[in-house]
Design a protein that fits this description.
The structure holds two protein chains of two kinds. Chain A is globular and about 55 Å long. Chain A has helices spanning 8-26, 38-51, 70-83, 92-97, 115-126, 191-201, 264-277, 285-294; strands spanning 30-33, 60-64, 87-91, 130-132, 149-152, 180-183, 212-219, 222-225, 239-245, 255-258. Chain A is α/β, with parallel strands linked by helices. In chain A, helix 1 (8-26) packs across helix 2 and helix 6 (191-201) packs antiparallel against helix 7 (264-277). In chain A, a hairpin with a 2-residue loop joins strand 7 (212-219) and strand 8 (222-225). Chain A has eight helices and ten strands. In chain A, the strands form two sheets. A six-stranded mixed β-sheet of chain A has the order 3-2-1-4-6-5, sandwiched between helices. Chain A has a four-stranded antiparallel β-barrel with strand order 7-8-10-9. Residues 276-301 of chain A have low confidence and may be disordered. In chain B, the strands form four sheets. Chain B has a six-stranded mixed β-sheet, with helices on both faces. Chain B contains eight helices and 21 strands. Helices cover 19% and strands 35% of the residues of chain B. The longest helix of chain B has 18 residues, at 151-168. Chain B has helices at 16-26, 32-40, 57-65, 95-102, 120-131, 151-168, 201-207, 213-216, and strands spanning 2-9, 72-77, 81-87, 107-113, 136-142, 172-177, 220-227, 239-243, 249-250, 254-258, 263-270, 278-279, 284-289, 300-303, 309-320, 332-336, 339-353, 358-360, 370-383, 394-398, 405-414. Chain B folds into three domains: 2-211, Rossmann fold, CATH 3.40.50; 215-303, Beta Barrel (Elongation Factor Tu (Ef-tu), domain 3), CATH 2.40.30; 309-414, Beta Barrel (Elongation Factor Tu (Ef-tu), domain 3), CATH 2.40.30.10. Chain B is of the alpha+beta class. The chains are: A alpha/beta, B alpha+beta. Chains A and B meet through helix 1, helix 2, helix 7 and helix 8 of A and helix 2, strand 2, helix 4, strand 7 and strand 8 of B.
Chain lengths: 301, 416
Amino acid sequence: MSNNHLDYLDELEAEAIYILREVAGQFERPALLFSGGKDSITLVRLAEKAFRPGKFPFPLVHIDTGHNFVETIEYRDAMIKRINEKLIIGHVQDSIDEGKVIEQKGKNASRNALQTVTLLDTIAKHKFDACIGGARRDEEKARAKERIFSVRDEFGQWDPKRQRPELWNIYNGKIHKGENVRVFPISNWTELDVWNYIRREKIDLPSIYFAHERETIVRNGQLMAASPFLNMDEEDIIERRNVRFRTVGDMTCTAAVESEAYHLDDIINEISASKISERGARMDDKVSEAAMEDRKKGGYF
Amino acid sequence: MDILKFITAGSVDDGKSTLIGRLLYDSDSILADQLEALHSSNRKNDDGSIDLAILTDGLKAEREQGITIDVAYKYFQTEKRKFIIADTPGHIQYTRNMVTGASNANLAIILIDARKGVIEQTIRHSYLVSLLGIQQVVVCVNKMDMVNYSQEVYDQIITDYQKLAAKVDLKNVYYIPVSALKGDNIVHPSSNISWYKGESLLPYLENIELAVDNSTAHARFPVQWVIRPQTEDLHDYRGYAGRVSSGSFKVNDKVTVLPSGFTSSISKIELLDEEPQEALAGMSVTVHLKDDIDISRGDVLVNSNYQPEVSQLIEADLCWMDTRALDTSHTYFIQHNSKVTRCKIQEVLHKVNINTLEKEYNEEFKLNDIGRIIIKTAEPLAFDLYQNNKANGGAIIIDSRTNLTVGALMLRAVAD
């Protein structure tokens, strides 16, 4: 720290805590959307900093596709036990059983797109007026323009044309009945910031973030974990590879990267190294693939 | 490592997209997939080099599709600093977007096309930067390659700008001749401009001392949330959660709660398991007081020796941000930090023509209009003058009918 200015991680942390407390102060029925990924795990840590020794003023909500990595669900349950907070699970299977969505067919079938319906139903059922999520502005161009308090109409839609100006650190959370607000406390963090924070705070992560050996197949140029949820045929060759996952989502659409990064330091080095290799015009497929992962699409938001 | 937030004021025609693209590209901040797109794109500059403006294409696409052009945030980092760019459009119809981006910036880059010099939009951008209280300005005279890197042209622009800076009261201005297209003086010094002895843009941004407005202003702590676990073992626990908006608080500091006026002193400062002795500007903490007094969200703790203004009648600069014009008979909400109360714009004193800086005296306040007003609030606000303390001197107006944010206020004086 120099000249009374906060270190960048302290400043990002303080801003996120401030935003979480604004949610608590401005809304009647907020919720924290928990995916089991590193960004929402970071949000949980920030919520502890914002509200302990009190309870969180919101439950955690997990939309479970039913096709999650076992490691994610184990992590989720152990974490809930540790923090002793309420968890609400919305099951995509329920949406399928109720006929609200139809399971995709074919080789590339995934439940990823279906979970939006389950999420909106869960929001409606519990009358949530604010949903906290772990999206970041560095993820993609459109996201770079989204507000920290982002108003959704009753159909859950984001209208870039109707965004409210957001000045200083004053967040306008006033909404009409039926609307809700998506709140993104780590909007200003980059992927590297999140990893550096996880290292500083010694936050545990699901084991699939770290290099491990697993049965994989190559599908559409990407490495996928072989699993009962993936529709496979004789063309798919199962090979054991050393891999890790850069994001945590549905097993049918979360690609792995080959990696020897067994520890947090290795991962941070790997990310930093991939930045350096991006300097030149030449790129190998691995870096390209990793960068594609950066632009995580779909999912909760 | 700290964070520098800056805004870029200029239009696409000034080479703003190219300038931002050049900063990202030459500082190795571009992800692999973007880089690939850049190199494989058919869009090239006349000399066959890659078109860096593609990196900020989002905004261009919006314009072509006629969608509202908005603030886009971009992130990059060097070994010395993390940077957040608020990329805002420069045309007059997007004044509110520039005001929004400027509200959180520590520094502004103002782009001037070397062929055009100081023009109407330069005046407008400089005025807005000054209005929003940005302390540090870098004037980049761009497209120097188009004027044969002429020192004479550059010097004339600087002379013109210095007059403007004095007029709009901008004190810390740094001047750099650049060509974003050729990369002159952006990240590396240019041999084309050997007569320029100052720093290039990126090294300047990396090394500049941040204006210390928040940390040197008086201590303010708006209460956002009261932590009361009410469990058996924490029966008497009562912590005030918030963020130090300016100054700093130490344990044992005497504090006054506003607007009620009760006084107490700080018994403990908490951040999860830590108990720091001091909370600095910008830190989110939980504060405990020695006395049990009634405090709730919307109240502000201040250092008892340096109290802010407390008033219901305030003179302020207003930037109107809604397509529906200001209605002086309508009751709006005002939000000032964590405090929300009702308000009316009691009087429009004057408006400012932001292209000429002349005062105008018609009452109607429309989208993008800026002027001086008097606002009356239902409950007293504990505020500082914006020019002394941005963090406790800014507020927004919300239309109770639409819930939209319709105005930005820079509180300037107690009105009597």
